[in-house]
C-alpha cells in the first residue's frame, strides 16, 4: 500500500551542485524502482542551522514528497546514512498527519454546525458553554448602597 512520505535532509554546505543533484537523483531512483511517484522536490538552498553540526553553521536543505510503499523507507534511510555529505535526515509519514488533521476539521465543522442549531436565547438551564447554571446566580443582586 502506497503512503505519502516527506524525506527531508541537510547536505554539507561544502558540497558542489553536482553532488547535491547526485544525492537527490539517488533518492528519486530508489522511489522510481519501487514504482512510487515523486510529488515534489523542494530545494531550499543554503540555510543557517539551529546549532552547529560538524563545525558547520549552514547546510543545504532538501525536501522530497513521495508516494511509495513502506518497505522502500529502509532503502532510502540506508542510502542517506551511507552518504557522507548528508549531515542530518528525517523521513515523515504524512498520511497519518493528514488523517488526524482531517478528523480535527470534521470535528470542528460538526461543533460549528451544532452551535448554529442552538438558539441564542434558549431557556434550558444551560449557560453559553453548555454547563448547568445555578438558579441562585441569576437571582442575586449586588447592593452598592452601603
Characterization of this structure:
- By secondary structure, this protein is α+β, with helices and mostly antiparallel strands.
- Helices cover 39% and strands 34% of the residues.
- The protein is built from 4 helices and 4 strands; from the N terminus they run βαββαβαα.
- It has helices spanning 17-33, 72-82, 94-117, 135-139; strands at 2-11, 37-53, 56-69, 86-93.
- A 4-stranded antiparallel β-sheet has the order 2-3-1-4.
- Strand 2 (37-53) and strand 3 (56-69) form a beta hairpin.
- The mean pLDDT is 81.
Question: Topology of this protein?
Answer:
Elements: E1 2-11, H1 17-33, E2 37-53, E3 56-69, H2 72-82, E4 86-93, H3 94-117, H4 135-139
Antiparallel strand pairs: 1-3, 1-4, 2-3
Helix pairs in contact: 1-2
CA-CA gap between termini: 76 Å
Q: Would you count the extended β strands for me? A: 4
Shape: extended
Counting copies of identical and different chains, the oligomeric state is: single chain
Helix percent band: 25-40%
Order of helices and strands: EHEEHEHH
